[in-house]
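Thread: Newbie trying to understand structure tokens

Hi all, I'm a second-year student working on a class project, and my supervisor (Dr. K.) asked me to get a predicted structure for one chain before our next meeting. I've only ever worked with sequences, so writing a 3D structure as a token string is new to me. If someone could post the tokens and maybe explain what I'm looking at, I'd be very grateful. Here's the chain:
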Amino acid sequence: MALITADTPDAVSKSRKLSLSVDLLSELFSHEEKEVRDAALEVYIRRVYRSHLIDDVKIVEDKSGVTNVFWNFKLRDAPHQSEAPVKRYGMLSVVDSIDETEEQLGNILGDYKKHMELEGCLTEEGCVNTFHVAIRSKKNDNAITDQDALVSHIESMLKAHTDDLKCLGVRMVNYLIPQPPKLPRYFSFLECSDYTEEPLRRDMRPSFPYLLELT
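---
Reply by user tm_fold:
Sure, no problem. This is what the structure looks like when written as tokens:
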């Protein structure tokens, strides 16, 4: 815990000491101290998106208890890239449970649209943005007993909001579910398959497939 508040989130996210504990940052998303919660969230985003250029990170806690993190990012220049990189948007919402996600998803996506300052829908850039949901860490409460049923439940929720997600240009939806004392579970749902899960990405950090493409 001392590590993530010892320096700026940007500096901490680049620390080698964080390599083995980045997945466990999610357990601090529900810490009683706001300074620790905010630091854990920003360090997580900056670490997971370390291969990108992040312009800004904004953390907002709303009255319903949902914590939203917004950031803008760009792909780092590729050797043969002649045009300026497209500005992309990211959002992470921290909620108490999967059921709360279902109840709040419409409002959460509405907040995302406000952050993007959209009047209508994205049309030119296509689907280049990302949306993350993190469940707050609770001992034993997040244990996944039937992962196929869980995935089906999430797919059903996303299907009900497919038009909203595509309007926002969301390319990938990622769910992070803590499993203390084990590592958290990751589930990714892609726009190219109408927001159904991509099994090959299960339990991969959201940006890990992109890093594999670069190697």
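A couple of things are worth pointing out once you decode it. Residues 211-215 have pLDDT under 50 and may be disordered. The CA atoms of residues 82 and 135 lie 40 Å apart. Feel free to ask follow-ups in this thread.
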